[in-house]
Amino acid sequence: MITAPCSNYGAFIKEGRINKGWTEEQFAERLMTTRSYIGKIERGEVHPSETLILRISKELNISHQELQLAIWCDPPHSVCS
């Protein structure tokens, strides 16, 4: 059972975006959302929906499972900090 979001998931997503060379605005356009919402995700203020997690994983070329593990901690088996 998922118990809590990881504390560093926003930095993980931001790093992926930066590695692609995209601004928040460009990333938002690719994900069909707003720059403001991307900023909130990257700051850990909101948690993306399952639909958005799928889109993020596709855009960043990472597996859906890897991204879910970066966002949602499930102690004691979590790789999150």
Q: Would you mind describing this structure in some detail?
A:
This protein has 81 residues and is mainly α. The chain has a single domain, classed as 434 Repressor (Amino-terminal Domain) (Orthogonal Bundle), CATH 1.10.260. Helices cover 58% and strands 5% of the residues. It has a two-stranded antiparallel ribbon. The two termini are 17 Å apart.
Summarize the structure.
It is built from five helices and two strands.
State the main characteristics.
single chain; 81 residues; mainly alpha; 434 Repressor (Amino-terminal Domain); two-stranded antiparallel sheet; 5 helices; Helix-turn-helix domain-containing protein
Mean pLDDT: 87
Largest sheet: 2 strands, antiparallel
Estimate percent helicity. Answer: 55-70%
What is the name of the CATH topology? 434 Repressor (Amino-terminal Domain)
Terminal-residue CA separation:
17 Å
Structural class: mainly alpha
CATH architecture: Orthogonal Bundle
Q: How much beta, percentage-wise?
A: under 5%
Which parts are unreliable, with pLDDT below 50 for 5 consecutive residues or more?
75-79
Number of helices: 5
CATH superfamily: lambda repressor-like DNA-binding domains
Tell me the radius of gyration: 12 Å
How would the blueprint of this fold be written?
Elements: E1 4-5, H1 9-20, H2 24-31, H3 35-42, H4 50-60, H5 64-71, E2 72-73
Antiparallel strand pairs: 1-2
GO molecular function, one term: DNA binding
InterPro entries: Cro/C1-type_HTH (IPR001387), Lambda_DNA-bd_dom_sf (IPR010982)
Organism: Metabacillus mangrovi
